[in-house]
Amino acid sequence: MPALLRETSETDKEVSILEKPAQLQAGGMRLSEKRKDILFLALLIAPAIVLLLFTIGIPIIKSLYLSFFDVTLLSMKTLKWNAFGNYHKLFADNDLLHSIGVTFRYVLTVVSLQFALGMMLALILNGKLPFRRALRTVILIPWVIPTIIGALLWMWLFQPQYGVMNFILQSLNLSDKPLQWLSDVHLALWAVTIAALWKQLPFMVTMLLAGMQGIPGDMYEAAMIDGAGKRQQFFHITLPMLKNTIKTVTLIACIENFKMFPLFWIMTSGGPVDATTTLSILSYKTAFIDLDLGKGAATGALWLIIMLVFSWVYNRLFSIGEGKGGAMH
Amino acid sequence: MRKILITGMAILLVLVMLAACSSNKDEGSQAASPAGSNSASPDAKEQITLKFASWSISEEATKGALEEMAKQFTELHPNVKIEFVGIPFGDIKQQTFVMASSGNAPDIIQTFTASFPTYAASDIVIPLDDLLGQDYINDLLPSYKQDYTYNGKLMGVPWAPSPYVLYWNKELFKKAGLPDRAPQTYDEMLQFAAAISKLKTDSGEQIYGLGEATEKLPINGMIALRNIYSFNGSVFGADGKVNVNTPEVIETFKYYQKIVKDGLSPQGAKLKDLRNLFSIGRLGMYADGYYGRKVFQNLSGKGEAFDATWGAALIPTNKTNESVSIGEAHGLVVSKDSKHPEMAVEFIKFLTDEKMISLYHDNSDVMSARKSIGALPAFNASELDKTLNAQLQHVKPLPANNQGLEQAYLEIAEAVQKVTVAGESPENAAAELDSKLKQIMK
């Protein structure tokens, strides 16, 4: 037996011998060290669990409960069980499938663009660039600005009659007439995507940059000695070493955009003609504009399920090739 | 270990006691309020706090007038305190309904015509017939009385009413070589709009001839009814049942489609966009309520000097051969949870009496829904006053209040958006709208 393990087991023995009389003194209560530790840990995390239960658990359970009732803010005093009536209505009027489509289109577009642009910017900022410290700070500005302010800002930039975007496009002869950024069914989602990209890009850049800075420099030196070019270094060192960072940061970006509400609500309110009605907008509109809490809760419940499935699939995909003992087993 | 357990138990005990104390405190405060307070009369000398949820108190243009009204009321009733709850216009319905669901609704809630049906059909407000008295109710203009009635009961008071009138920019008319008067008919209005739309600003930006709000909002659906009525249409067929799949409604949608397609009106505009464009000289004509003058003064940055730039006129005639408009009104409802409904109604009566409405009129051009007050010289002094009063005689009531009416307005706005933004045919839009309204307005 190695010395260290031997010492540990001997210490345990000493502790158990010393503790025995104490356990006997405690009116026959036989608590092992392990159980005591578990109890102590439980006591430590109990406040956090209670807090989470009150702030997240109970609202989720209440929401699921309400999704089976006819409940409206117009008459809160009456709750009428309607089994799966709310879910049936959701699928019957096609709004849900449309919003799922819009949500996925938005999330996939914004996260892909965010990742591609974020990686490019991170690589640039990770290089030997003059004023790179200042640039790393400047790039954080959109992230610091509250989302609501950002949305209002972009709304004015996209304003068709006197917005800066159209002014620039027309001045450069890139467009002969003002584009209806927020009221054109084909442009509205892109307009929100641009605003979201501007807001969230700094987060992606910062996280990827932090990941890159954690890669040991000698790996690149070794690769260079072996004759690897920049492209090979990127694909065979940077990307594999960033795998966990990429997994985390893109999952956060996906979840963040799945539940994106303020940008959509302020810039388009889900319009025009529902072209930007995502699940979050549909849920809010149903619950607080139509005041149908039951149907709103049903939308929220389905939204939750979709997000859980998405996260599970996402984790499974990233786990592929992790080898023995990985999440696949 | 025992020490830790004991400490933990002690902390939990303290938390439970604190929670119990706070719950007792709530009960205590409820108990401290007058017993049987529902029977509190306006003459009672008990201390009363009336909570008044309003967006006007959050807006610079009207805040001063409202505070002055509250001050004067408390001078008359020293035992009453008016506590304003400022909520933005766009959020007031959701927030007050959520407050009501937790039994915490303000005593008085400000609303407006497009949202009122939802309050009227809910169980959070009370009928006001008995509290206001028949004399007061008989003094209300009939169309406004109808717009604030649900199931035969007056569920709210039209506080700051206004018909939609046509605002026109005299300078743009002159630049376009048009006569110095507002158009008399819809055809003339479209001709004038086409002439104005050919103009450009000095910096080459587009000028629009005629603005119609087409953003998907309940108020824009309600405003679309003004056009539907002008085209001699209605939401209901001759049998009194919902029917919007009619030639008149289709023609109205064609009108919307044409003005956007021909570039006469900006696409997907909100009322506030139209106000902005009008104030910066980029819109020739649009319909709005009494709010116009003050808004233009602020947005143009020219103050009262801007008043000479525009005129207000009756809505042009169309298929009915007479000017047709609809009335909008900021209204007041009394919450069912109010412990002092009599005092709340007393305050509403005070806000709508001659002195207070005059104060409001001087501040913001507000009109009165009371016949006896609207006829007074003070409410017919300016050209705008005269036009608003003349238009009030040509106001058609909105559909009878219904639990689904606000949603119906939203669907009408969406139909307008479909023909203007998504290029859907007016016939299809009317058919789809008909099917939706038949479900909503059962």
Automatic annotation (TrEMBL), chain A:
Extract the CDD domains matched here. Answer: TM_PBP2
Keyword terms, alphabetized: Cell membrane, Membrane, Transmembrane, Transmembrane helix, Transport
Please give the SUPFAM superfamilies that the UniProt record associates with this protein. MetI-like
Gene3D superfamilies the UniProt entry points to: MetI-like
Keyword Transport set for record: yes
Record-level GO cellular component terms? plasma membrane
Which BP terms does GO give this entry?
transmembrane transport
Domain ABC transmembrane type-1 positions: 100-314
Matching Pfam families:
BPD_transp_1
The subcellular localization recorded is: Cell membrane
Q: Tell me the membrane topology, using the record's own terms.
A: Multi-pass membrane protein
Q: Where does the source fall among the domains of life?
A: Bacteria
Give the stretches traversing the membrane.
Answer: 38-61, 104-125, 137-158, 178-198, 263-284, 296-314
Q: Which family does it belong to?
A: Belongs to the binding-protein-dependent transport system permease family.
Q: What protein am I looking at? A: Sugar ABC transporter permease
Organism of derivation: Cohnella candidum
Q: What is the lineage of its organism?
A: Bacteria, Bacillati, Bacillota, Bacilli, Bacillales
